[in-house]
Amino acid sequence: MAVGPSAFMGVAAVLFSLGLYGVLTRKNAVMVLMSLELMTVAACLNMVTVSRFVTPAEMTGQVFAVFAMAVFAAQIGIGLALVLAVYRQTGSIELSSKKAT
Amino acid sequence: MLSGYWHFTPEVLVVCGAFAALFGGYLPGKDRGAAYAAAGAAALAAAIVAFGGTGGPIVFGQLEPDSVARYARTGLAGLTAVWVLWVAGRGMPGERRREGVALALFATAGGMLLSMAEDLIVMFVTLELATMPAYVLMGYRRKDVSGLKRALDYFVDSILASVIVLYGLSFLYGISGSTAFSGLELEGSGMLGFVAVMLTLVGLFAKVSAAPLRHWTLDANAKAAPVSLAFVSTVPRVAGIVVMSRLILAIAASAPAIGILVGVAAAASMIAGNCAALSQGDLRRLLICSGIAHLGYLMMALAAGTETGYGAAVFYAVAYAVPSMGVMLVVAEEGVAIGDFARLASRRPWVAWSMVLWLLSLIGIPPLAGFFGKLYLIGAALQAELMALVLLAILATLLSAAYYFRIVREMFFGDEDEQVGGAIEPSHAATVALALCAVATVAIGIGAPRLIAALGVRFG
Amino acid sequence: MSETVSGPVFAILAFACIGGAIGMLSARNTIHAALWLSEVMLAVAGLYLLLSAEYLAVVQVLIYASAMSVVVLFIIMLTLREREGPVRMADFSIGGGILAGLTGVILYMALADRGDRISAMPVEPSGTAALGELLFGRWTLPLEVAALILLVSLVAAVWWSREVDS
Question: Which ipTM value was assigned to this complex?
Answer without folding.
Answer: 0.94
